[in-house]
């Protein structure tokens, strides 16, 4: 009993800051937005209770909503695996003892450091422009040039490329994870005559799995909420033909351009449910593939 | 390596010790930031003791506007030592992003630069003060045309003070016009004649224009046919005959088909206005607001001139649009002082020698004359065109209703779909009507 | 021996070429900052500025009105440092609690924390703004900085995942040595999660540096503006945008982030490999 109490006390002592911050700054806005989702609220007047109407409208009479949901799914399920794979490959390439590696790491990280300023949008527009470098490369390969900004499907893929290009944050986390794998494990395996692939699948992947889990969860959440790239690349329109109207962009438009904060809140809560289900699936599956050293092998 | 690790660790320890009792950390930071809030506290103290007034004024714009507006504020503070003005400026996007939470929290600045597309939203929801009581007292309106002032009227109140006027125009490159074999664009020309000229340009390998912004020019077209985009009371669309919709967008589509206007995917591909074919000298002209002329001249190596947009019924189509307003927020506690600043802005000649028509052609006739010698040639051309348009236009009517933002977006979307051939103009007309009436009927 | 050299050369060739490919857009950005505003678009396909001008930097650095770009950079630095300190302290503590301590309600609070990540900021923004308005915190750094001292879910989760890779035997050994719970945190865990803390620092630094929405909402006085806000002010929706100055200042604002990354990335990867897992 005594130790129980003591354990709880220590636990809450450590996570206390989170709970205080949550109660002070976060819980009220969350409850408020939940309430707004059942109302018609234009930011200026008091919200008006309309029950489930917002949700009904979303799924029955708002084709733009369904469209934005669809392209967001494409964005997430094409973009996240590509980005993670890319990040992992580069992280492994850079996980060597070479002298120049610090410089390489920084260079590879540079695209991510640029972030989401307008300069990126302009830059991206040049590169994917009619006589930009991408179309130039396509033409030398004998492929017809593509109007990246004029074709809704191409525009979405261009956004996906942008997210893959800014792979730095995942790469860095992978690198940190790779470095925390004790070198002795590999040495022991080498002594046993293990090949590169054996080492990769038997040591690297299991040891890295908590970090892979982290990246998978976080990148999925972040991809669902992608706003800035879509906003700056399409100049705030989500065009052409709503090709880049990602969920968050449409939500933003509803909330702040059309002043339908109630509807926007309802959209947010639907998204929360979707992300919640996906994340739980990932967490649930993690029992089978994530290996925690602290909890002693499987 | 080990050493640097120790340093970092040491840092963490210090941080930890500093934050030993958890909550202290937050007090630490508030200690840091308190300095700034104390400053503002003392400001408000002196306000209470003397006759000191502090006004917050917010605007959007670009670098030159920020610079000269700050100079005007300085000038005003020199002349009115009891007034302190706190400027808050931002880019267009950031500005509106900031304004809505401020409105929700009753924290709007005293003077707000307003745009036609947002004014109804803010006014109808009680965020803006009625300026009517200040006319003739704080704000001298003796040199300002009645029609101009009315541009800020929403229902029964005057919720924005018009700062300048714009008119629709065709801004063309005379050299290219000559090259395609047209000597001059007549003052009025029919839509058919417009299409003929455009064909001529296309034949010569030039674009005639770069399209027409759907919401602006559809409204213009409707006005020429005795209707308008929104009903006067804002309860629905202002036209009954969908044939008008079909006719207008058919013209637009035909222009693209004969290659007198760039295709929509070409336009979407442009990085910025600097890449526009007209700016680069591959097109005759641009249909746009008069005030955009100065920017066009700045951007391009070519020189441009003013002509009118198409349509025989020009006078009904044209109107003077308030370029922007200064509004006073309802939550302001110094409405009189704010109104006095607006008066200074619109009537003071010295101030307007700094402003030089950047916020639209000055509304005061006296100011307009006084600064005539100071403005650039391009700006003078704008003044002249607007002066001409003033004589040859009809009143604008009620500003866009609340919800117009969404309608404009729908219209832009639908016109995009027409341009991409996803929908016929006939279907689009019907579709747009259902959507728009749904939005405005709410 | 020769094979080893060959391997090295191939490695550098691949990694180097790939880096250049990835960096092309960045190089384009930097080169464009030396072109005049009109030339940026007209000569977009050329990387060589002709003529090469420095005027964009002078113009951009002058800033707006009374405040030069140095003010914005200083403001952003203060903002970033305050947030960074907050994150390092609070996130490591909270993460340790979640990863190592067993207490009633642990899963519940962890789920809540992950949940707060999933709601878009846009919909909690207005109520939160009103809370900060009630506290009279508007037009100060407080709404942007104070919450950082109560943890950030992303970093808490990151640190939790790293702590869970550390073998528990180390804790047990420390307990035998007479450490209490706090001692384990300080003596065992903290030194071992330096790479993750460095990662936290890097992310915090450039996310905060880039943060636009927060400063836009909460900072009103131009004297308090941050770099991200200032960059947007070079743009215009009505007239000509000053692209040259915007590009130039984008490059300038990249430098601090770049330096910070270069310094901290060593800790990300060197931290553990040198200190080792000797316990």
Task: Explain this structure.
The complex is a heterotrimer of chains A (298), B (442) and C (279). Chain A is an all-alpha fold and 298 residues long. Chain A is built from 13 helices and two strands, in the order αββαααααααααααα. Chain A has a domain at 36-113 and 167-295: MetI-like fold (Orthogonal Bundle), CATH 1.10.3720.10. Chain A has a two-stranded antiparallel sheet with strand order 1-2. The longest helix of chain A is centred in the N-terminal third of the chain and has 35 residues, at 2-36. Chain B is an alpha+beta fold. Chain B has two domains: 52-163 and 323-383, Periplasmic binding protein-like II (D-Maltodextrin-Binding Protein, domain 2), CATH 3.40.190; 168-321 and 396-441, D-Maltodextrin-Binding Protein, domain 2 (3-Layer(aba) Sandwich), CATH 3.40.190.10. Helices cover 52% and strands 11% of the residues of chain B. Chain B is built from 20 helices and twelve strands. Chain B has a five-stranded mixed β-sheet with strand order 2-1-3-12-6. In chain B, strands 9-8-10 form a three-stranded antiparallel β-sheet. In chain B, helix 3 runs antiparallel to helix 16 and helix 19 packs antiparallel against helix 20 (425-441). Chain C is flat, with a radius of gyration of 23 Å. Chain C starts with a helix and ends with a helix. The chains are: A mainly alpha (298), B alpha+beta (442), C mainly alpha (279).
Notable traits:
A: 298 residues; mainly alpha; MetI-like fold; two-stranded antiparallel sheet; C: 279 residues; disordered C terminus
Topology at a glance:
The complex is a heterotrimer of chains A (298), B (442) and C (279).
Chain A: H1 2-36, E1 39-40, E2 48-49, H2 53-60, H3 63-94, H4 101-114, H5 118-127, H6 133-140, H7 152-165, H8 168-179, H9 183-191, H10 196-224, H11 228-233, H12 247-257, H13 261-289
Chain B: H1 2-18, H2 24-49, E1 53-60, H3 63-79, E2 83-90, H4 92-104, E3 111-114, H5 116-124, H6 146-150, E4 153-154, E5 157-158, E6 161-162, E7 165-166, E8 168-172, H7 174-179, H8 191-203, H9 214-224, H10 242-257, H11 264-269, H12 277-280, E9 285-289, H13 292-299, E10 305-307, H14 314-317, E11 321-322, E12 325-328, H15 335-347, H16 349-355, H17 365-370, H18 377-391, H19 404-419, H20 425-441
Parallel strand pairs in B: 1-2, 1-3
Antiparallel strand pairs in B: 3-12, 4-5, 6-12, 7-11, 8-9, 8-10
Chain C: H1 2-32, H2 37-42, H3 55-62, H4 69-100, H5 106-118, H6 121-134, H7 142-145, H8 153-163, H9 169-176, H10 181-192, H11 194-210, H12 213-218, H13 227-233, H14 243-275
Helix pairs in contact in C: 3-14, 4-8, 4-11, 9-10, 11-14
